[in-house]
Amino acid sequence: MDEDEIVPATTQRESTAEPSRTTTRQVPGVPAPIRTKLSDSEFWVDSTQTKLNLQNLRTQFAGEGRLTIAQAIWILKAATLLLSKEDNLLVLPSPIIVCGDIHGQFYDLLQLLDGNGDPATTRYLFLGDYVDRGYFSTECLLYLYACKISYPETFFMLRGNHECRRLTEYFTFKQESLFKYSEEFYEEAVTSFCALPLAAVMNKQFLCVHGGISPHLATPEDINEIDRFREPPTHGLMCDLLWADPSEEFGTEETLEFFVHNHTRGCSYYYTYNACCAFLAKNKLLSIIRAHEAQDVGYKMYKEVASTGFPSLITLFSAPNYLDVYNNKAAVLKYENNVTEMLVGVLEVCSPDELLPDRREIVKSKIRAVAKMNRNYRLLREESETISELKSKLTDQRLPYGTLSSGAEGIRNAIKGFEDARCSDIDNEKIPLSRDEDELSIQDTVFGVIQPAVESRKRSTIPLIDFPDEDDSMTFSSAPENFEDEDEGTDLGVGSGSHSV
After folding, report:
1. 3-state secondary structure labels for all residues of 145-200
2. pLDDT below 50 — which residues of the chain?
3. How many Cβ atoms from other residues are within 10 Å of residue 355's Cβ?
4. pLDDT, tens digit, 9 for 90 and up, residues 142-156
5. 54-377+473-500 CATH pick, 3.60.21.10, 3.30.1300.10, 1.20.120.80, 3.50.50.100
6. What's the pTM value of the predicted model, to 2 decimals?
7. Domain assignments of the chain as residue spans, ordered by start
8. Among all residues, which ones are annotated catalytic?
9. Would you say the C-alpha torsion 214, 219, 221, 226 has a positive or negative sign?
């Protein structure tokens, strides 16, 4: 046996014989990845080469196939050209589906689109973070861009904090781009990130943004004054739109300040309930819709504005079982016709009998229809990969005593659960240091606070050899009726802890 060959721990214990080699698939029910690239006739709808064949692209990506480098770069350049013509601040009508973070989870993206409407007939707004952390970032980006190219007037994408060179070099997108395509592909992707709009006003009532508001933001129109065609800075309005978070005590803060330094991120701010209410009142808006943080049940509705009775802030997260260890649900938000029906399409992830009795007074507006997403997404990994995954999430890179002897199930249980995953992944919340900063610090110019350089950081590493190819399923259920709200500070969901990404 080759000394460098990796053999699962169980194989080493049970047998010392050389593993058998075969040219046949060991699990015939699992289709082999597509090895051929699309021809030009398959890439385009017809010989005019003016319209992409979305169905062929979907089939190719779903089968773990790839495009030619020329085809992939064409999509990136065409999307960049389209996005560059849009304002920093989009103004969008209803009806519309608003989606949170995707993070390279392509099969979940397909389920999202299948469950909420064909992009050909449904208006979509994505709030950013399409890449990094997941296995299929290139597929997500290319397919979303292909939808944008095909339906430029009804398919919209905003920039997230991960759509930049700094984070994609630190996390997984650059590595994946080089593995599947080329350096040129990665550079074109980074260029396309700079063309993504930064925010949207939906139906003249909702500010939609990846992170949140800023002390530099007086009106939504201020966003149009930003030069967005650049790498996001570590401070200022552009940074805050991508990186800011609601305060950890949102709605119960003791401070009277509107903004406090965001120590979790290492840049930007926490904005308070009072900051949100003041911004909404000044601009005659109803609520802020954002993404940027994983939610246990896929979404969170924060304390209501006293004058409207509507949540001041809504967080959406659309990547279920984030990193394959969070066990979180996913959600999207559907807005149509009027404010009352805005809650109709929140993709509910708890069935009525899962809601605790003391939570039944949470929602003031009647919910007419609720979609239920059941995540059945299991990855086929060798024990060695699972162990590497667990070690990458532990601060000291050491497995707890007895973990290996507990077998595969014990190893998986060691990293199971939303709260456990949240705690073990905490280091990846901070903005990574760039090459230029190295051991220096990132300074917040508003507060004059210098954040110490991170001594030890954990990079999320994802092997690019074995990609999962199982699909997910989605089912729908009817909605609970006549929920009323008397508790301003609670969120819409059970056990809805949050985690930053």
Report:
1. HHHHHHCCCCEEECCCCCCCHHHHHHCCHHHHHHHHCCHHHHHHHHHHHCCCCCEE
2. 1, 3-15, 339-355, 357-385, 395-397, 438-501
3. 17
4. 999 999 999 999 999
5. 3.60.21.10
6. 0.72
7. 54-377+473-500, 383-451
8. 162
9. negative
